[in-house]
Design brief:
Blueprint lengths: L1 E5 L10 E7 L3 H4 L9 H10 L9 E5 L7 E8 L6 H14 L6 E5 L7 H15 L18 E5 L6 H22 L7 H15 L2 E5 L1 H6 L3 H7 L7 E7 L7 E13 L20 H16 L4 E12 L11 E3 L5 E3 L7 H14 L4 E6 L3 H7 L3 E6 L2 H13 L3 E4 L17 E2 L7 H10 L7 E6 L5 E2 L9 E2 L4 H8 L5
Parallel strand pairs: 1-6, 2-4, 2-5, 5-6, 9-10, 9-13, 12-16, 13-17, 14-15
Antiparallel strand pairs: 3-4, 7-8, 8-10, 11-12, 14-17, 18-19
The structure holds ligand BES, magnesium ion (MG) and zinc ion (ZN).
């Protein structure tokens, strides 16, 4: 997507759709910007007829007869005193939706001056590009879809070329994650995920190792391999490394849950448990690979970054894990598998142990881990658990600055009682109540205490049935923006 800034003169701009953001007071006065393009008085009347008063969330479009622009879109930005960056982001998403029948260039006139212009420009450009996304890969004869291919942010005089490069890299990572999550489980298998990782590594010069079943067995990854046992497909343990040019000041590991399908195993998913949606149980790994793609392209200095995914399917056959089996993870801990549907944490037990052996400063895992997190926070907020307050704050900051919502939840140590096993060191499943907290506590057992660690449960946020904000219906690519913004900010 080509993104440019243009200084103030609207009359020199040409394109097919022009978006104007308006506050909820003195609308007619604000319309003066349109002088020379259209008649502010008749537009004010039209907006009035449509009951547009500039409140947040309002939008109206006007088709006009000329060639440039062919369409005007008005977006309400609410009270100017209360304007947040997120209002621009949401307003831009609405404007993008109103522009889906236009091609060529889209001009945007927003109150840039209220924020640092590169920050506002990044939010708006990302929002527009991400709102245009549609997955048509699985249609035999897809309808050609129109949308503008160039975005001109009008009224910005700074040169922010570098910001736009970053916008495009980040959006490409989000789109990659959305495509991985959206792909059906017969298409995106553990082998398919590994191939994608190899492809990304080649294109962006990352180091790549794929551990096969026998390699994982040598590492003693009994928890991960137990999950993979019931599938005809081989598990693939993926490890990519981004090495910065110059000095390494910090080393971080990003770990993603990579179940390309979760049937539940012998604790089969039944009733309302959405078994047909469990292709998205690799959402964490999709965000980690999306981040790898973006980071590889942005090439931040000073930070070495490891991307780790223990990928497999959770299926049933004669060799599948039994409910009640006891297995041993690669850190030596024995686990009684009292529920085969709590499989993500078993794969993560070995992935986190592997990450710890690399001795990084920070580990962050992303996982579609629990239905309990969906119940608690819904589809627009992910759960965050951390053993380190500073890391939690950094992640909350990184996520709020890019419009991804994160809410910190407690690592309530007393709930570990629920994971006590009569026979093994730990059970994989506690009581229903507080299910996302016991899941996080289970993961903590596989992280070295002196490593800063955060766990993000994206079970609710990785998919949206109806769409919201910058997310059209379907896979959201949640997490890529937070991870990339956070990782690229490590040495400031
Ligand atoms: N992949 C699911 C979690 C999930 C549920 C993701 C709904 C997205 C939407 C996970 O493997 C799972 O099955 N968790 C169980 C754990 C339980 C058995 C302790 C759950 O949440 O029901
Ligand atoms: Mg499960
Ligand atoms: Zn799962």
């Amino acid at each position: 997507m080509q993104i440019t800034v243009q200084t103030n003169n609207l009359r020199n701009w040409s394109g097919s759709v022009l978006v104007i953001g308006l506050f909820e007071e003195k609308v007619q006065l604000q319309l003066e910007v349109l002088n020379g393009i259209s008649d502010p008085t008749s537009i004010a009347k039209h907006l009035d007829d449509k009951d547009f008063s500039g409140k947040t969330g309002e939008r109206v479009h006007i088709q006009i007869l000329g060639d440039s622009p062919k369409k005007l879109v008005f977006i309400g930005l609410g009270d100017p005193e209360k304007l947040l960056l997120n209002d621009l982001r949401e307003g831009a998403a609405l404007a993008a939706r109103e522009s889906l029948d236009s091609d060529g260039a889209m001009g945007v006139v927003f109150p840039w001056g209220r924020f640092e212009s590169s920050i506002a420009a990044k939010a708006v450009a990302e929002s527009i590009r991400l709102s245009f996304f549609k997955d048509q890969r699985f249609q035999s004869d897809p309808k050609t879809r129109k949308h503008p291919v160039k975005i001109d942010l009008i009224g910005i005089s700074e040169n922010i070329e570098e910001t736009f490069k970053k916008v495009n890299s980040i959006c490409a990572g989000v789109e990659l994650a959305r495509e991985l999550v959206g792909a059906p489980p017969n298409e995106l298998t553990p082998g398919g995920l590994a191939n994608k990782a190899i492809e990304i590594a080649k294109e962006f010069k990352l180091e790549c190792t794929i551990l096969e079943r026998k390699d994982c067995a040598k590492e003693g990854m009994g928890a991960y391999l137990a999950v993979a046992k019931g599938s005809d497909l081989d598990p693939k343990f993926i490890h990519l490394i981004y090495k910065p040019s110059g000095q390494v000041l910090r080393r971080i590991a990003l770990v993603g849950k990579g179940l390309t399908f979760d049937s539940g195993g012998y604790n089969l998913k039944v009733g309302a448990s959405k078994i047909e949606m469990m292709k998205y149980d690799m959402g964490g790994s999709a965000s980690v690979l999306g981040a790898a793609r973006s980071i590889g392209e942005i090439a931040p200095k000073g930070t070495e970054i490891h991307f780790i995914i223990a990928s497999c399917e959770n299926m049933v056959n004669g060799s599948a894990v039994h409910p009640g089996d006891i297995v041993q993870a690669s850190n030596g801990k024995t686990i009684e598998i009292n529920n085969t549907d709590a499989e993500g944490r078993l794969t993560l037990a070995d992935a986190l142990t592997y990450a710890c052996k690399l001795k990084p400063d920070v580990i962050i895992d992303l996982a579609t881990l629990t239905g309990a997190c969906v119940v608690a926070l819904g589809e627009q907020i992910a759960g965050l658990w951390a053993n380190n307050d500073e890391l939690a704050e950094e992640l909350k900051e990184a996520s709020s600055s890019c419009g991804e919502n994160l809410w910190r939840m407690p690592l309530q140590s007393s709930y570990k009682e629920g994971l006590k096993s009569m026979l093994a060191d730990i059970k994989n499943t506690g009581p229903r109540a507080g299910g996302s907290i016991t899941a996080a506590l289970f993961l903590r057992e596989f992280v070295e205490k002196d490593i800063a660690w955060a766990h993000i449960d994206i079970a609710g946020t990785c998919w949206t049935d109806k769409g919201f904000g910058v997310n059209p219906a379907g896979a959201t690519g949640y997490g890529v923006q937070t991870l990339v913004n956070w990782a690229c900010n490590q040495n400031n």
